[in-house]
Amino acid sequence: MTQPSSVISAYHAHVYFDSASLKQAEEFCEQARTTLGVTMGRVHQKRVGPHPEWSCQLSFSAEQIGEVLPWLILNRNGLTLFIHPVTGNDLDDHTKYIMWLGDSKPLNIEQFL
């Protein structure tokens, strides 16, 4: 049994999209970067890591969650977002401590086992 971490150092919000929603996702991520000051990762037009769809990662500090989360909720416009904390335990971060905005998707967590 793993010991839960009491320290959340940051959060990742993974924005999922496909070829039809690519432009929408790019604009959403760019707007989050400029409006909120979050760090925008690459726009992956392939599956990366545990993610079952194309994605772009938005990273932000734990202190920003109160500002970032409401903005994501109100501005996602149908995009699915997978949000998790960064505690140092990748398995728990991607399985136990998760939030979905939109429909949840099965992750491939084999790399964390």
Task: Explain what you see.
The protein is built from 3 helices and 5 strands, in the order E-H-E-E-H-E-H-E. With 113 residues, the chain is of the alpha+beta class. The chain has a single domain, classed as DOPA-like domains (Alpha-Beta Plaits, 2-Layer Sandwich), CATH 3.30.70.1240. A 5-stranded antiparallel beta sheet has the order 2-3-1-4-5. The longest helix has 15 residues. The radius of gyration is 14 Å and the shape is globular.
Q: If strands are numbered along the chain, what order do they take across the biggest sheet?
A: 2-3-1-4-5
Q: Please, what is the average pLDDT?
A: 94
Number of helices: 3
If you compute it from the alpha carbons, what radius of gyration comes out, rounded to the nearest whole angstrom? 14 Å
Tally the structural domains.
Answer: 1
What is the CATH architecture term? 2-Layer Sandwich
Task: Provide the descriptors you would attach to this structure in a database record.
five-stranded antiparallel β-sheet; 5 strands; 113 residues; single chain; alpha+beta; 3 helices; Alpha-Beta Plaits
Give the SSE layout.
Elements: E1 10-17, H1 22-36, E2 39-44, E3 54-61, H2 65-75, E4 80-86, H3 90-95, E5 99-101
Antiparallel strand pairs: 1-3, 1-4, 2-3, 4-5
Give a brief outline of the structure.
The chain has one domain (about 10-105, about 110): DOPA-like domains (Alpha-Beta Plaits). About 30% of the residues lie in helices and about 30% in strands.
